[in-house]
TrEMBL record:
Keywords: Oxidoreductase
Gene3D superfamilies named in the record: NAD(P)-binding Rossmann-like Domain
Protein name in UniProt: SDR family oxidoreductase
Pfam families recorded: adh_short_C2
InterPro entries xrefs: KR_dom, NAD(P)-bd_dom_sf, Peroxisomal_Beta-Oxidation, Sc_DH/Rdtase_CS, SDR_fam
């Protein structure tokens, strides 16, 4: 594996004031990239950029709510104005409005889809235009979620947006391939404000904050760790070492990295002349319905007491 060196490259990381986004921005800067840090809160964005500079990196802050075309253009224009170019985009910005279907409002749905799905679309479009103009390729790194791969209770809006992001990564990898722009979705699993609401994880996250390491059954078995554990994937995908990696959904967390499969047919059956409801009912149990797929994010396998 060649050394990961992003010197002379410029990146935009949306939603990078805190948590995973901040870890991605720090990792890019640590490998030489100049970074535009983004957050809705100007003070948070400025502090995040300052923390990168204090660590020896190069970063500026751009406070804007992701979702609109205007916001996307501002972020790309800031990178070009400050650093003269744009080579990588990480679409991390997101919000949660969790409710079960019958309690979810239009506003709950629209707010999450606007930030995650439309924000990814508008930012990626603006970045792709710039990268194509530069003619030197680039990297779009879209942030997905296990919820988008398998669904998750109470997350209609979030799961739908993240599933759409995975589909956009596959589509854009085809559309941008000739421009040497790679497009991948990452699927991080880490101790964040969201995961600490999961009762099985909460005591271990609290212990980690008190200085205790996460146990192996979480770091290896569940692929669950810190935001910094997930961040390693971002500089790799932005580097020359990953020029052949595109159109993929890649999971990372703790000590684990994994390649998610694309949706595909796993069982088929045929009927001469086509199917009727009755023939489907007769054939279903012993053919395509013999082993149905599970849904939801599997509960963590905790060690026995």
């Amino acid at each position: 594996m060649p050394s990961i060196d992003l010197t002379g490259k410029a990146a935009v990381v949306t939603g990078s004031g805190r948590g995973l986004g901040l870890a991605y921005a720090h990792a890019l800067a640590a490998h030489g990239a100049s970074v535009v840090v983004n957050d809705l809160d100007e003070a948070v964005a400025e502090q995040a950029a300052k923390s990168i500079r204090e660590a020896g990196g190069t970063a500026v802050a751009e406070a804007v709510a992701v979702g609109t075309t205007e916001a996307a253009d501002r972020l790309v224009e800031r990178a070009v104005a400050e650093f003269g170019r744009l080579d990588a985009l990480v679409t991390n910005a997101g919000i949660l409005r969790d409710k079960v279907l019958w309690k979810m409002t239009d506003d709950d749905f629209d707010a999450v889809v606007t930030t995650h799905l439309r924000g990814t679309f508008t930012c990626a479009r603006a970045a792709a235009v710039r990268m194509r103009e530069q003619g030197e390729g680039g990297s779009l790194i879209l942030v997905g979620s296990p919820a988008g791969q398998r669904g998750n209770f109470g997350q209609t809006n979030y799961a739908a947006a993240k599933a759409g992001i995975a589909a956009m990564a596959r589509t854009w990898s085809m559309e941008l391939g000739r421009a040497n722009i790679t497009v991948n979705a990452i699927v991080p699993v880490a101790a964040t404000a969201m995961t600490e609401t999961i009762p099985a994880f909460a005591p271990y996250i609290e212990a980690m904050r008190n200085g205790d390491p996460l146990p192996d059954f979480l770091r290896k078995g569940e692929g669950f760790g810190t935001p910094e554990d997930c961040a390693a994937l971002v500089p790799f995908l932005a580097s020359a070492a990953a020029r052949s990696v595109t159109g993929q959904c890649i999971g990372i967390g703790g000590d684990k990295v994994a390649l998610w499969s694309h949706p595909q047919e796993i069982s088929t059956a045929y009927a001469d002349g086509g199917w009727t409801p009755d023939t489907l009912a007769d054939a279903w149990p012993a053919s395509v319905g013999a082993e149905l797929q599970t849904v939801g994010i599997p509960a963590p396998k905790l060690p026995e007491a």
